[in-house]
Amino acid sequence: MILYGVTDLHTAITHELDECPRCDTALRVNNGLCLLCLLQTGLTEAEDSRSESLDTLLSEME
Amino acid sequence: MSRRRSFRVELGGLFPEARSLEFESGFTLQISDVPPEINETPLPSAETPGEAAQSALTAGRLAHEQTTIHAVVDALQSRGSAPDDYVANQIPRRSLMIINKSPVLSSANANEGTVRRGTFVTTRWSLILSGTGSKTKEQEASAALAELCSIYWRPIFAFICRRGHSTQDAEDLTQDFFLMILEGSWLQNADPSRGRFRSLLLKSLKNFLNDAADKIHARKRGGAVSFISWDDWLAEAPSELSMSTQRLNSLPPERLFDVRWAATVVERAIRRLREECELKEQRRVFDILSGYLTKERDDVSCASLATKLEVPESTVKKLLYRMRQRYRWLLRDEVAQTVENPADIDEELRHLCGVLAASAEQAT
Prior knowledge:
The complex is a heterodimer.
Chain A: E1 11-13, E2 28-29, E3 33-34, H1 35-40, H2 54-61
Antiparallel strand pairs in A: 2-3
Chain B: E1 7-11, E2 18-23, E3 27-32, H1 36-39, H2 51-56, H3 59-62, H4 65-78, H5 87-90, E4 96-100, H6 106-111, H7 124-129, H8 135-151, H9 153-162, H10 167-183, H11 197-210, H12 212-220, H13 230-236, E5 242-244, H14 245-250, H15 253-279, H16 283-289, H17 302-309, H18 313-336, H19 345-363
Helix pairs in contact in B: 9-10, 9-15, 10-12, 15-16, 15-18, 15-19, 17-18
């Protein structure tokens, strides 16, 4: 079964990826970040957010 | 329909390029990238909006971008604040974002300061579920459904492949499945009590594949219509999920579907974050810091990153903090589009996290 290639379904690799030291899974996206950790971020409590936003910070860098 | 008397426009204090239209009904329409000419146009408050804006205050129609654009145009024109054909020609459709004044996620709400970008309103899935009863609503629901299908085609395709079909047959079956979804009576049968978009789609896909052999034979006789432009979709959203062949082959179809679904959600949130940085001409900030979005990378050296970005270390810390926070909101927004109520976001996230964790255990 071919699950990648022209369909771009996965980037399947022959060697085992390093497991995430935090959650022990080995599914990675983008720049090597752990998929489960990225997903779990959505479940974490929002931290204090009274200071400036990302937009503001980025604008100040221009 | 009750009449709404309050209608005002306010500038986003921290974002000179952003404005929002705030309705008494509780809806706020945020407009980004508004031409400066509009920013300079004073708009009086406490006047009755135009007829289209009035009708758009009903939740179903307001949730539809195109309708809202016309509502905004009519509303501005009715106040003598914009010449004919002005706004419609100059506000690109993608620059409109509808948000709900009533905070559902108050933390994210606060995240964005004076411009309330942090709350969720009618999701695509809830729009689909409410899309019966009138032709307009059905059209809106169909458009929302088509958009969801175009986002989540990979889990469907992966599931079909895992069920043993060749790549070519899987492509054909994916096409046929979407045609069945988009042109058939699936929408009318999408009972809210039957679950979320993901689970309902998977259930429908299983039923669809039960007589897949007949469908493949029928297609090979000709006459099938293509819904998917594979090249367009691949170009728009290349997959960046990496997993070992061993792990890939160990996953049953249902689990692969959910893994692929989770990857789609995450990839879309990251892509939106990247686009927001690009909008501020700060793609380099994204490139350098996005590798530290999770606490897996808490070993980050802010001093090193500060050197790369040529900014003070304190700025790096702020950027990391805000980037993580913004990513979190975008991720939850993506999930929100596939559930009926924002209250279901956590449960959906927990389900997907559980699948990923179980997949790791299975592979060991």
